[in-house]
Amino acid sequence: MGKRGTARKLTRWCNIKALPGATRLLKHLRSNGVPTALASNSPRSNIEAKISCHQGWKESFSAIVGGDEVEKGKPSPDIFLEAAKRMNATPSNCLVIEDSLPGITAGKAAGMHVIAVPSIPKKTAEFSSADVVINSLLDVRPEKWGLPPFNDWIEDTLPIEPWFISGPVIKGFGRGSKVLGIPTANLPAENFSDVVSEYTSGVYFGWAGLSTRGTYKMVMSVGWNPYFDNTEKTVEPWLLHNFGEDFYGEELRLAIVGYIRPEANFPSLESLIERIQEDGRIAEKALDLPMYAKYKDSPYLRNTLQLGSTNDDSQAELNSK
């Protein structure tokens, strides 16, 4: 491949965003002196080119092993055993984080502990050979493996880089709301599927601005509704305010500022309602903290903006607070 082709490939790689929580996890392990290796079936040169797109990643790894440096790639254990060797680590003391079945098979064959983060939606059962299956890298709990815990959780919430979406309410305070006791508001997810696809499924929280009513505390579910065979993630905000009436068709603007928990299935409607109400209590309390409360005054929530986009002036005002 010529220089021009290589440059085009590097540009494509650098346009791919890291998985939510990846940079956070690497920074945490590095700051706590935990040796970390990157082992991939890709050629070593490709691996190094890809991680060069993310600041601080290359320095975070004690070892990098490419598929061209071992006899057999995944699902063979060779690549993980070589990584352990280069870190001077005993395989049984190593923890593998994988998103593919061949990788999980390789990690277990190497005698290592394996966390699976499935790259394929709704395929959790297929990854059951892993020690643990989690929803995303945001849900890694290092302390469960004898590693230093994260210290960035605040009042049972994880601050995230704020993101903003908006759209007309296509269902609000309907039958489901009366059962849950919380005004829900479905938005047309297809209008901002590109934005939502960048965020892991789970329960988030923040502020909701209704065009004719004001700004309210909000909890939001992002994910695949188990009652429908939908191929796209659904977005269901729950406004923590008792309106007592429908708000169909109103413009709803959301500022999502934190994460609470992964998407989960519940054995009964009662247990689902109990968990939703707990999510609401967590969000109510957290949104009174200055770090979250400041976004209530976001210009984004006061103005009608282009769907799924941020406003430079709005963001500038937020950053100055």
UniProtKB/TrEMBL annotation:
<dbReference type="InterPro" id="IPR023465">
    <property type="entry name" value="Riboflavin_kinase_dom_sf"/>
</dbReference>
<dbReference type="InterPro" id="IPR015865">
    <property type="entry name" value="Riboflavin_kinase_bac/euk"/>
</dbReference>
<dbReference type="GO" id="GO:0005524">
    <property type="term" value="F:ATP binding"/>
</dbReference>
<dbReference type="InterPro" id="IPR036412">
    <property type="entry name" value="HAD-like_sf"/>
</dbReference>
<dbReference type="Pfam" id="PF00702">
    <property type="entry name" value="Hydrolase"/>
</dbReference>
<keyword id="KW-0288">FMN</keyword>
<dbReference type="GO" id="GO:0008531">
    <property type="term" value="F:riboflavin kinase activity"/>
</dbReference>
<keyword id="KW-0067">ATP-binding</keyword>
<keyword id="KW-0547">Nucleotide-binding</keyword>
<dbReference type="Pfam" id="PF01687">
    <property type="entry name" value="Flavokinase"/>
</dbReference>
<feature type="domain" description="Riboflavin kinase">
    <location>
        <begin position="158"/>
        <end position="288"/>
    </location>
</feature>
<dbReference type="InterPro" id="IPR023214">
    <property type="entry name" value="HAD_sf"/>
</dbReference>
<protein>
    <recommendedName>
        <fullName>riboflavin kinase</fullName>
        <ecNumber>2.7.1.26</ecNumber>
    </recommendedName>
</protein>
<keyword id="KW-0808">Transferase</keyword>
<dbReference type="GO" id="GO:0009231">
    <property type="term" value="P:riboflavin biosynthetic process"/>
</dbReference>
<dbReference type="InterPro" id="IPR006439">
    <property type="entry name" value="HAD-SF_hydro_IA"/>
</dbReference>
<comment type="pathway">
    <text>Cofactor biosynthesis; FMN biosynthesis; FMN from riboflavin (ATP route): step 1/1.</text>
</comment>
<keyword id="KW-0285">Flavoprotein</keyword>
<dbReference type="InterPro" id="IPR023468">
    <property type="entry name" value="Riboflavin_kinase"/>
</dbReference>
